[in-house]
Records
---
Amino acid sequence: MLWKPSPNFNDRALPISMIVLHYTGMKDAASAIERMTSAEGGVSAHYCITEEGEIVQMVREEDRAWHAGKSYWCDITDVNSASVGIELVNPGHEWGYRPFPKAQIDALVPLLSELVQLYHVDPCHVVGHSDIAPARKDDPGELFPWDRLAKLGLAAEKPVKAHVDPGWADANFLMALNRYGYDVTDAPAAIRAFERRFRPELITGVPDGQLRAMLFALLLERDTESSTG
């Protein structure tokens, strides 16, 4: 692991309860790391992982990095204070979005596992930038291998038994989506973020029976675990 300190941090106001995954959305790793470690850039993350699997730390975990911007998750509006931010080098949708290499995800898994265990982060609170800022962000995007993380218990798992459509009206679906964690102020954006996370093969921004069943299953599983845990 390399240490390349960034001046872009300040004190946390909240304990760590989340981990936010991003893509850099820049042409290459050097450009992204330079931006996150320069005062002029005004942004940072705790870690950046290159496509070759090299991990670069830029901000200490005890400090508040500036990676989330205006964001929201489960009533938390200062996501920067409550989270560890991990950037994955990828040109993103603007510069030629592509799959995340195996070496990069192989490096992410042990780092994420260590963070989840150290800070007792619930898998439901390992999220993407698009989950916490659906109206502004698309990353890490529909090609990110959430399934691999879920199988290791490091992220919420896509429901495999989501067969019960609760038949919610659209307004009730949005209420349930907000209960799960999303800011639903921009309803279509919030729905697309949920799809990007749990149904990346079909992104419409419109609730349907499959989405209702998936969200119902996710909430049921989370609430059951909370009551028994």
Note: The first helix runs from residue 29 to 36.
---
Amino acid sequence: MAAVRQIQVTFDCADPVRVGRFWCEVLGYVPSPPPTGFPTWDDVESTRHGAWFACVDPTGAGPRLYFQRVPEAKVAKNRVHIDVRAGTGLVGAERLAALESECARLLALGATRVRLLRADGVDESCIVMRDVEGNEFCLD
């Protein structure tokens, strides 16, 4: 049996291009090359009308993100979510400052702050947020 070496994270959403471009900004990703037969993403849009969008980590380290339009709206908490690692290796006030700084940047991109989960002696602080379509993620 072959080992899986890459994964893709797929988002169901109403506006794949909007949500995908938000996550490009959050993570420093770039749109993936347009599909074969399309010289640019604008050419894809002219035929597919925003039905899907994909982006990749330009370093090749992170997974590909794929966004697909679905007819139903989000109705419950995500079963899987992304942790944006903005405070890795930091603790206490230094960690909170890094998280708050990144939170401010993401709010300007259209994210929504939900709540701060303070350190509890076991886990360090994190901030729960929502992307432009309400999908939960954490600043960790």
Note: The chain has a mean pLDDT of 90.
---
Amino acid sequence: MASLSSAPSDTLEFLPLEGETRQLFILLHGVGATPASMRPLAEALRAAFPQAAILAPAGFEAYDGGPAGRQWFSVRGVDEANRAERVLQALPPLVDYIRASQARFHLLQSDTALAGFSQGAIMALEAVGAHDGLAGRVLAFSGRYARLPQWAPQYTTIHLLHGANDNVIQATHTEQAQARLNELHGDATIDIATRIGHELHPALIQRAIVRLQTCVPLRSWEAALGLNQHPPSGSVIH
């Protein structure tokens, strides 16, 4: 069982009702949204991992595209040339928040998972790219890299999840990310759901839970079996 607490800055929190906290999930919403938009994922994670602390903070900036919602960085006038710099400028307070949350619950980076949707997925991917090992897992829903990475995190398993019919951030971005991470010998999986658009769809959430429960990190797989190859990583959800 878990309890919902009211935290500062409109953070949505689910904490274990009793016993020690063993895992930390930090959920990052999309642009113009609020922590409440991550509730379906938070509920699924709470059911699957009852001893986890699940935090969904509000984006650190007011959304500049309307009167409500929050954002991690401005998308006004954003393009391929300036996106990476905007993300870089937005990362420090998020990294500080992640590290403070790890200290709060006395958990290691390897016990931490970042899960982001859309702009939140961008932030999660770029955070572990800039700080290798900041989290043991990343769940990137309907997201992309601000710029395709030049190196892959060695201490983070990345799970890429996308709707095939996404017309906001096309699934080709996720496919390109997986291809690049494979080239760099990164640890990543990819799941593309057919007939799903730009949404935190239950099918993708369920697939993410399966990935968390069943995927052995590549570094552990290789150490145990003496392999120099990836375990199976991709699938299409029908």
Note: The first strand starts at residue 2 and ends at 6.
